[in-house]
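Work Package 3 (structural annotation) set out to generate three-dimensional models for the target panel prioritized at the project kickoff. During this period the team completed the workflow that converts sequence records into discrete structure tokens, so that structures can be stored uniformly alongside our sequence database. As a representative example, we reproduce one entry of 145 residues exactly as it appears in the project archive.
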Amino acid sequence: MADLDPLVRYRKHGVDEKRRILAELYQQAEKLERQKTAIEEQVEEETKLAEGMATAEASAYLGRYLEGARTKIETLNGHIRQMEIRIAVAQEDMRTAFAEMKKVEITQRNRKDKEKAAEKKKEDQELDEVAIENYRRRQKDDGGD
């Protein structure tokens, strides 16, 4: 039987690579969330400042600012949704790769267990043969005297 250790290492490397990619996707999604939170916090601050000024000019600027901020937030929400889809695909890809790696590992372990069992059986047979031969010799020696 062929040794599957190289295939196990190859599959493990693939899983590690997929895990790294997934981690990068999570970091990107987190960055988008932080950007969205920062814009929302700026909106709150600008709204408080405009309310404190209570002028028509401040209200006009605030309206345009809020419109631009809403557009940015909507754009970020779209990017976040896209990132969530990419993350879900990457998670499924990693799960599949991990399952394939485990199958190969289990197959390799089963093969090694079978080889050990065969070696043990052969060794036991050899020891049995030696014991039987020793018994025969003793019987012959005892019977010949």
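The chain has one domain: 5-118.
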